[in-house]
Design goal:
Elements lengths: L1 H35 L3 H14 L4 H30 L3 H15 L2 H18 L1 E7 L1 H4 L10 E3 L11 E7 L3 E23 L1 H54 L5 H50 L7 E29 L2 E15 L18 H37 L3 H13 L7 H15 L7 H5 L6
Parallel strand pairs: 1-2, 1-3
Antiparallel strand pairs: 3-5, 4-5, 5-6
Helix pairs in contact: 1-2, 2-3, 3-4, 4-5, 4-10, 7-8, 9-10
């Protein structure tokens, strides 16, 4: 038992070592591939994972150190470029580069610069609005939680682009509408006689058993006929045997004729013995078959007695369709959300519906009548107000989105590449943080053109470091 346990432990250790060795080999190959591409940050990460599997492997330590040194050299050039961009007021580029340094090294100076630029650009590219609305209807916090939107209170305007937004709900109108819905119910309209399926099944079962009884009887007759034929054959052989034995008694045992008759005697006795065995077997089979016949006849008799208690026909319900009308009463509360943005007015329709059905008694199908139960004017007005608040929130989000897309359009129109990059960063900071994949690809290509691929520029990650550090 101790040997078995030790063997299992050794097998487990060997399996872990094999898996670990394969993983280490794969990571080393990945590191070599990244190194050949000049992507030292990814190579360093692959070698670092390989070191966790085999911390004492000298080759892994050497490769890790080399890729780390090259990545650090690259970071030094990025830091110099970040300081230069900051001095030249290329805010977008500086923020991304400082973000890369802070993310890779946790350098406090780079982190401070990143947060400074991010806050500055966020302040400069927020959507600022002065919002006027009914606080009773819309509450005091409408728009407060929307990313990229700053509400300016009072008469103070943070930027010349501050928009004046007025939101109100129009008067509520109620109207009713009734529609008809044809319905079909079912009821028992009468009864008709039909063939009893249980009776038909019993008939089929009886027919099958009749065939079985007939088969068993035929088999019994066959065995009896075989017995007669075998008896007749045995009597014929016994007669032949008596003739041979009579001749033997008259012959000289020393003659060849005697020997021939002796062989005939033995052959006849052998055949008679075989017939006796077959006759005994047939007799046994006749006895067994007689029992089978009796059993089959009793089963058939039991089945036939079932016809006394099962009628050949039964009464079946006739199911008929009953057509009636269900009336659907709808009560609609309508209004409009009035949104005025710097004097440009738009109206967004608002609507909530309360609906119920009604119908009279229909005793034929045992359906009790039902009255329509609709919401009160007060309840529907409250629901309409909730709809107005949700719609108003969505209108403000739409303004932020349009503002964010406007920043993207301005960035794309810029002739200067640094100005274009700053515009893309402004677009990424405004509203919900981040940029679409195509924009991120353009921003990454802009940076890789200058700095190569020694380090990775995860654009959306670099746009959203603030304020997580």
């Amino acid at each position: 038992m101790q040997l078995i346990k030790l063997s299992r432990v050794l097998m487990s250790v060997l399996l872990v070592a094999t898996v670990s060795g394969c993983a280490h080999h794969n990571l080393m190959e990945a590191g070599e591939d990244y190194t050949s591409q000049g992507r030292y940050e990814l190579a360093m990460q692959a070698y670092q994972k390989a070191l966790k599997l085999e911390p004492d492997d000298q080759e892994t330590m050497d490769q890790f150190s080399q890729s780390r040194d090259r990545f650090n050299q690259w970071l030094t050039s990025v830091r110099q470029a970040a300081d230069k961009s900051y001095a030249q007021d290329h805010r977008g580029k500086a923020m991304l580069l400082y973000g890369k340094i802070a993310d890779a090294t946790q350098d406090p100076t780079a982190l401070t610069r990143y947060n400074e630029i991010h806050q500055e650009m966020a302040d400069n590219h927020q959507l600022y609005i002065q919002l006027e609305k009914d606080p009773i209807l819309f509450g005091n916090y409408l728009g407060e939680e929307i990313n990229g939107l700053t509400l300016v209170h009072g008469s103070i305007s943070h930027t010349p682009e501050t928009s004046s937004v007025y939101i109100q709900r129009g008067p509520v109108r109620f109207h009713y509408q009734e529609t008809e819905s044809p319905e079909v119910g079912q009821y028992v309209s009468g009864q008709v006689p039909v063939d009893n399926p249980e009776y038909a099944s019993l008939q089929q079962e009886a027919s099958m058993h009749r065939h079985r009884v007939e088969h068993e009887r035929n088999q019994l007759m066959t065995y009896r006929q075989d017995q007669k034929d075998l008896g007749r054959e045995r009597r014929s052989l016994e007669k032949d045997l008596r003739v041979v034995e009579n001749k033997l008694s008259k012959l000289d045992p020393a003659t060849s004729e005697y020997q021939q008759k002796k062989l005939e005697q033995e052959d006849l006795r052998s055949k008679i013995s075989g017939l006796n065995d077959r006759i005994r077997w047939t007799k046994d089979k006749i006895h067994e078959q007689r029992r089978d016949v009796d059993h089959a006849e009793r089963e058939l008799e039991d089945i036939l007695t079932g016809f006394d208690r099962i009628p050949p026909t039964i009464w079946e319900d006739v199911i008929s369709d009953y057509h009636y009308t269900r009336y659907i009463l709808s009560k609609t509360a309508e209004s409009t959300l009035i949104v005025d943005i710097d004097g440009r007015r738009r109206e967004v329709p608002l609507e909530v519906v309360s609906e119920d059905d009604h119908y009279p008694d229909h005793p034929t199908i045992s359906l009790a009548g039902k009255s329509a139960n609709l919401e009160s004017d007060q309840a529907m007005t409250q629901r309409l107000n909730n709809e107005a608040r949700t719609t108003a929130e969505n209108q403000l989000k739409s303004m932020v989105y349009q503002h964010k897309q406007g920043l993207l359009a301005l960035a794309n129109q810029a002739n200067d590449s640094e100005e274009r990059l700053t515009g893309w960063v402004a677009h990424g900071i405004a509203g919900n943080p981040g940029v679409e994949n195509d924009v991120a690809s353009k921003m990454r290509a802009h940076l890789e053109l200058e700095f190569g691929k020694a380090g990775e520029f995860d654009i959306n990650h670099l746009l959203t470091l603030y304020p997580t550090f």
